[in-house]
């Protein structure tokens, strides 16, 4: 164990945040899985808790092994991952498991495990964009040589994710734009990208209606209409009403662990609406701690970005942290009624399999960059200290040489 701890490097604050969110996940999931355990596991909540514990433990192992890998290797993996993501997303749209008119999951036949291909695509895309940004810095102002090679892959992945999961596609596009902005892409190109994105969204709606893909479109329209008009007509969606009840019941200090009542009424309280359960049980104080944890993760990643001497590592750490924090903020915003209803989970906290695994891999890569930065700073510090330890030459020796 001591040997393992000695090999654990990287930003200690980020490690602390990972442990904190994992503990919160166990507490919140165990408190909110009563209805799920009753439907699927004959009321055996301990089985679901152990399952989540195993997933989180596997996530920690992934973080550890990923952070021990030299992050430059991920530059080579990025190309392969991006090329694999495209056929995987296509396969998911056609043959994926269908839930609520959306094909988001692929089931592996032998082990009967399902995972979201969008999780693979997001991770691969950010690694690829970070790689391209680092290679195109000398031509970043050139539209053809610098901008197009980065925006085309982003457009392809977002368009393939959008039919099944529009919220993920939009947040992915927003995260990529943030990374491009930090990568010194000209503002005029980013503004033109926003215009093209809006145009592409309108065309997608038109084409989808023309080919008869109206199920998901009507769902999106209903969610937006409910969000815009619900407060005026006092006709909020059921899950929004229950989330508001949970938040109102939590108050400042909450009802205490396991004392949530909204978990019996909220759809998916262990995933999409787990933040509402946290607020109900731990109050605004607990909710603020969760929010602060993600913001500190972003701040520490920005610190890594500033201190990393190599462009790829800097963009990689920043891009992965931005997408995790944006997803977390969007999840919180939906739970408190600031955004329309979506199916976004809270990273490292919501119950899940593939989402926890790929989130852990992203954090492991961030810590890999951090470990490299620490090693470089440590080598510089040792060199400086060794130079200071060298005694100055004696005065008589200087005179003799003269």
UniProtKB/TrEMBL annotation:
It is found in: Membrane. Residues 379-402 are annotated as: Disordered. Its main location: membrane. It is a multi-pass membrane protein. GO terms for biological process: cell division; peptidoglycan biosynthetic process; regulation of cell shape. It catalyses: [GlcNAc-(1->4)-Mur2Ac(oyl-L-Ala-gamma-D-Glu-L-Lys-D-Ala-D-Ala)](n)-di-trans,octa-cis-undecaprenyl diphosphate + beta-D-GlcNAc-(1->4)-Mur2Ac(oyl-L-Ala-gamma-D-Glu-L-Lys-D-Ala-D-Ala)-di-trans,octa-cis-undecaprenyl diphosphate = [GlcNAc-(1->4)-Mur2Ac(oyl-L-Ala-gamma-D-Glu-L-Lys-D-Ala-D-Ala)](n+1)-di-trans,octa-cis-undecaprenyl diphosphate + di-trans,octa-cis-undecaprenyl diphosphate + H(+). GO terms for cellular component: cell division site; plasma membrane. The keyword Methyltransferase does not apply. It comes from the Bacteria. Its EC number is 2.4.99.28. The keyword Manganese does not apply. GO terms for molecular function: lipid-linked peptidoglycan transporter activity; peptidoglycan glycosyltransferase activity. Keywords: Cell cycle, Cell division, Cell shape, Glycosyltransferase, Membrane, Peptidoglycan synthesis, Transferase, Transmembrane, Transmembrane helix. Signal peptide: none annotated. The chain crosses the membrane at residues 13-36, 48-67, 73-96, 108-130, 150-182, 189-208, 273-298, 310-334, 346-367. Belongs to the SEDS family. FtsW subfamily. This is Probable peptidoglycan glycosyltransferase FtsW. The lineage of its organism: Bacteria, Pseudomonadati, Bacteroidota, Chitinophagia, Chitinophagales.
């Amino acid at each position: 164990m001591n040997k393992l701890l000695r090999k654990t490097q990287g930003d200690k604050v980020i490690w602390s945040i990972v442990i904190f969110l994992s503990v919160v996940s166990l507490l919140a999931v165990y408190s909110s899985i009563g209805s799920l355990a009753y439907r699927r596991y004959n009321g055996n909540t301990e089985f679901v808790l152990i399952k989540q514990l195993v997933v989180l433990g596997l996530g920690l192992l992934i973080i550890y092994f990923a952070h021990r890998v030299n992050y430059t290797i991920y530059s080579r993996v990025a190309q392969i991952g991006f090329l694999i993501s495209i056929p995987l997303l296509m396969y998911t749209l056609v043959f994926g498991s269908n839930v609520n008119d959306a094909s988001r999951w692929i089931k592996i036949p032998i082990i009967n495990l399902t995972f979201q291909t969008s999780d693979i695509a997001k991770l691969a895309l950010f690694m690829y964009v970070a790689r391209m940004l680092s290679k195109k810095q000398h031509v970043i102002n050139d539209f053809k040589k610098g901008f197009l090679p980065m925006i085309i892959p982003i457009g392809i992945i977002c368009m393939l994710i959008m039919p099944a999961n529009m919220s993920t596609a939009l947040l992915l596009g927003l995260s990529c734009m943030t990374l491009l902005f930090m990568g010194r892409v000209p503002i005029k190109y980013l503004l033109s990208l926003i215009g093209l994105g809006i145009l592409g969204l309108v065309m997608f709606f038109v084409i989808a209606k023309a080919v008869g893909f109206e199920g998901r479109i009507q769902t999106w329209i209903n969610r937006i209409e409910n969000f815009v008009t619900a407060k005026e007509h006092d006709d909020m969606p059921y899950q929004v009403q229950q989330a508001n009840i949970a938040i109102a019941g939590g108050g400042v200090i909450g009802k205490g662990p396991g004392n949530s009542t909204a978990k019996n009424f909220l759809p998916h309280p262990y995933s999409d609406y787990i933040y509402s359960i946290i607020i109900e049980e731990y109050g605004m104080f607990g909710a603020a701690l969760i929010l602060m944890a993600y913001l500190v993760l972003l701040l520490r990643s920005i610190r890594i970005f500033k201190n990393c001497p190599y462009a790829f590592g800097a963009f990689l750490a920043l891009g992965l942290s931005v997408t995790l924090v944006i997803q977390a903020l969007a999840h919180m915003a939906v739970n408190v009624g600031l955004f329309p209803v979506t199916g976004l989970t809270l990273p490292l906290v919501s119950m899940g399999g593939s989402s926890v695994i790929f989130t852990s891999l992203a954090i492991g890569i961030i810590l890999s960059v951090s470990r490299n930065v620490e090693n470089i700073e440590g080598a510089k510090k040792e060199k400086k200290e060794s130079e200071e330890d060298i005694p100055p030459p004696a005065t008589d020796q200087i005179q003799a040489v003269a």
